[in-house]
Design goal:
Length: 470
């Protein structure tokens, strides 16, 4: 606002100075031209009458001057023949008339001016005249009958002051009106532009206070750039809110999963201090049972913490340590090892000799999670746990782990990879993990720029496939 007013004032002042000065100089040169022309016309009029003597010069000048009285044209005309006399269309200036209604003092002044003009010169000059104010005069001389005669014309400069006065007055009025209008317009435009930004700032302030729900709603009249900006900010807030919600949920789930084994452990400690024997101590058999239970819970706890750690690391850049290795050898070793911990029908399907550049430890961990699920969902001793490695296209290898268990219901296939997600059937069982196994498989696959999915295949059992780029 202050800026707008300042700029406007500077522009007004500059154009005023220009117009004021150019009006002055234009009028001045106009006056100069006019008195120059008038003096020359007067001279040629006298010359045309072919005056022979200085006296007849004055006479013909007199008649010419009478035809152009001062009061009609504001151009003072005069002829001076030094020594002989003078004539003018404004006789008061030369003191040659007596008008009794004029005060004596005024007439004296005018006569003084007349005497001033009686001392002629050549060219332009500016002289003081009390009646008319400063007077611009042009004089030129010519010779007649051995005498030097001067003709002259003059115009009062007061017209310039008057014109400049008009200019100044117009500028004052126009400037004041323009300033008020410009400030009003600036205020209206400014508040129109600032309103959406103020609204965004309000939203930002509320978000700063910890509330992620406010969104920027602009009126339909706001400009498209502002609409795009508001949309982008709202979209960002949506994502932030979702991320915070997911994090809160993850922490809540993790705390809940950690509490369960801790509760069991505390219960077992209470059992130990209770004792089933007369002296308050535990029998050897009971002690052994409690020890096994506590060991199982500690194992759960350890696995849970390990899994949480892996998931946290999976978001870091140094999650993987890739190195070239033989995928077929890794799979064979892994399946040989599994047959030591569970009794199933472990099968290795078609296995191409293949060198893969990936992180073998992370990949083994992912495959172990898939195998553990297959084991968990099949029966000993003949449940099928099978792994296959096949190429899919020139640059992708697919590792499939399948079993002949109940399979994963189609409607849950999208969800089983979520963190802490377990099917209802798995939830009621105390065995199995906390629902992080497949989340880790997905994190490992995606860290390798690959993917994991539940295959949609006819027949019994589940088939989960990891696709990795070669
Ligand atoms: N091979 C499978 N057959 C049937 N259900 C499975 C299989 N693998 C995973 N699931 C189901 O998917 C859910 C998520 O698996 P996972 O992330 O490994 O969690 P969990 O800790 O329960 O093993 C589990 O509840 C489980 O019931
Ligand atoms: Mg699992």
């Amino acid at each position: 606002m202050v800026g707008v007013a300042g700029v406007l004032l500077v522009v007004l002042a500059a154009s005023f100075t220009f117009v004021y000065a150019s009006t002055g100089s234009q009028l001045r040169s106009q006056i100069d031209r006019s008195i120059h022309d008038s003096a020359l016309q007067l001279r040629s009029a006298i010359v045309q009458r072919r005056a022979r003597s200085a006296i007849s010069v004055l006479a013909s000048a007199q008649s010419y001057a009478h035809s152009q009285p001062y009061r009609d044209s504001s151009v003072l005309l005069f002829v001076v023949v030094p020594g002989l006399g003078s004539t003018s269309n404004h006789p008061e200036l030369f003191g040659s008339t007596r008008e009794d209604h004029e005060p004596e003092q005024a007439r004296t002044q005018e006569r003084a001016q007349g005497r001033l003009l009686e001392r002629p010169a050549s060219g332009y000059s500016t002289r003081q005249a009390p009646d008319t104010g400063p007077l611009r005069v042009f004089e030129t001389s010519f010779r007649v009958d051995g005498h030097l005669a001067y003709v002259g014309a003059g115009e009062p400069l007061a017209t310039i002051d008057h014109a400049q006065e008009v200019v100044r007055h117009s500028f004052e009025v126009a400037g004041a009106a323009g300033l008020v209008l410009a400030l009003l317009a600036a205020y209206l435009v400014g508040s129109r532009v600032a309103a959406p930004i103020r609204r965004s700032a309000d939203v930002a302030a509320r978000i700063d206070a910890g509330d992620l729900t406010p969104r920027i709603h602009l009126p339909a009249t706001a400009s498209s750039e502002l609409q795009v900006m508001a949309e982008a900010l709202n979209h960002m807030l949506d994502r932030l809110a979702a991320a915070f919600a997911a994090q809160r949920e993850f922490i809540a789930d993790a705390s809940h999963e950690l509490r369960t084994p801790l509760t069991v452990l505390r219960g077992q400690i209470e059992v130990m201090s209770g004792g089933d024997r007369a002296d308050g101590s535990l029998s050897a058999a009971e002690l052994e049972r409690v020890r096994r239970l506590m060991e199982a819970e500690l194992a759960r706890l350890t696995r849970l913490v390990d899994d949480l750690l892996v998931l946290a690391q999976s978001e870091r850049a140094d999650f993987l340590h890739p190195t070239p290795f033989r995928l077929d050898e890794l799979v064979t070793e892994l399946w040989d090892g599994l047959s030591l911990i569970a009794e199933r029908d472990f099968q290795i399907g078609p296995l191409e000799p293949l060198t893969l550049s990936a992180d073998p430890d992370r990949l083994a961990q992912a495959l172990r999670n898939l195998a553990r699920n297959a084991i968990a969902h099949t029966e000993a001793p003949n449940g099928l746990v099978r792994i296959e490695v096949s190429r899919r296209g020139p640059s992708t290898v697919r590792i499939t782990v399948r079993d002949d268990g109940p399979g994963i219901p189609r409607e849950l296939r999208g969800r089983v990879f979520e963190r802490f997600y377990r099917t209802d059937e798995a939830r009621t069982r105390r065995s199995g993990g906390a629902g992080l196994g497949l989340a880790i498989v997905r994190a490992v696959a995606e860290a390798h720029h690959g993917s994991v999915r539940v295959l949609d295949e006819p027949g019994r059992g589940a088939a989960l496939a990891i696709d990795l780029p070669l």
